[in-house]
Design goal:
Blueprint: H1 21-36, E1 46-51, H2 53-62, E2 71-77, H3 90-93, H4 100-121, H5 124-134, H6 144-151, H7 159-167, H8 178-184, E3 189-194, H9 202-216, E4 228-233, H10 239-242, H11 244-258
Parallel strand pairs: 1-2, 2-3, 3-4
Helix pairs in contact: 1-2, 4-7, 5-6, 8-9
Length: 264
């Protein structure tokens, strides 16, 4: 098992560059090729799991043809991502960009507001307060080590600028919708969803289930190249940390189905 921080997050470097979903997709694809598969010299079956934005990245990477030969499954832990608005008209989807002068002024104001919020939210007490909100079942898991793992990377001198660029990434090119990624998915999918998540509610998992059935058939989680299994977890936004026993069981049960256990 490998765990990696997405570029610009956690303990990674904080390069000042434009951030969009393709940056993290390519990071995951390259990591699988260079590290997991040892530059293509090792043959291994792979499953990709991710939480929140990492879940969206896992889904995006799972549709990449560069992993088609080795990918056997995808796991979303309260995965983020935008769905297509069923009521949007083509004109709304192709809305014109604002006047460059207005856009620059708006960006300056937005940068100031986000910078102020970053200074506020990176304070240890505020971090703990936010975490307890998204760990509603087991708030005791919000300990000093967890707070420090968020606070310390935020002290990087480039962290505020990276934070701004990540927050405003919607303006950095079109991002694939969850609908389109699910349509392209060719591997089994596990939803391990914290049902008490105040940020990404179970309704998002319901939507994923509905779209998956629409694109791949209502197969009951048994047939087809991309079947779906859902396990609701008694946890909030980070089920793998708040309720690791339940999440580990769900992932291991899923792994037994998607991997050839005789070759592991």
């Amino acid at each position: 098992v490998y765990a990696l921080d997405l570029l610009g997050f956690g303990w990674t470097d904080k390069p000042v560059q434009d951030y969009d979903a393709s940056v993290w997709r390519d990071q995951v694809v390259d990591f699988v090729h260079d590290v997991v598969l040892d530059g293509g010299r090792r043959r291994r079956d792979v499953a990709i799991a991710g939480n929140s934005l990492g879940g969206y990245t896992a889904l995006f990477a799972s549709t990449d043809e560069r992993l088609a030969d080795v990918l056997r499954g995808t796991v979303l832990l309260n995965g983020a991502g935008q769905f297509r608005d069923p009521d949007a008209t083509p004109a709304e989807e192709e809305a014109e960009r604002p006047n460059p002068i207005i856009e620059s002024v708006s960006a300056a104001i937005q940068r100031f507001v986000i910078a102020c919020s970053f200074v506020y939210t990176k304070q240890p007490m505020r971090i703990a307060q936010i975490l307890k909100n998204v760990y509603p079942v087991t708030a005791d898991n919000v300990d000093r080590e967890l707070v420090s793992s968020i606070h310390t990377p935020a002290l990087d001198p480039d962290a505020p600028e990276v934070f701004f660029r990540v927050i405003t990434r919607k303006g950095r090119g079109e991002q694939p919708l969850v609908d389109d990624l699910l349509r392209e998915l060719k591997t089994p999918l596990l939803l391990a969803w914290g049902r008490e998540d105040p940020w990404i509610r179970p309704a998002a998992a319901d939507k994923i289930e509905m779209l998956h059935a629409e694109f791949h058939g209502d197969n009951g989680g048994s047939d087809g190249p991309s079947w779906l299994q859902r396990v609701d977890i008694d946890a909030g936004h980070c089920p793998h940390d708040e309720n690791p026993v339940a999440v580990n069981k769900a992932i291991l049960d899923f792994a037994e189905k998607v991997f050839d256990v005789t070759s592991v």
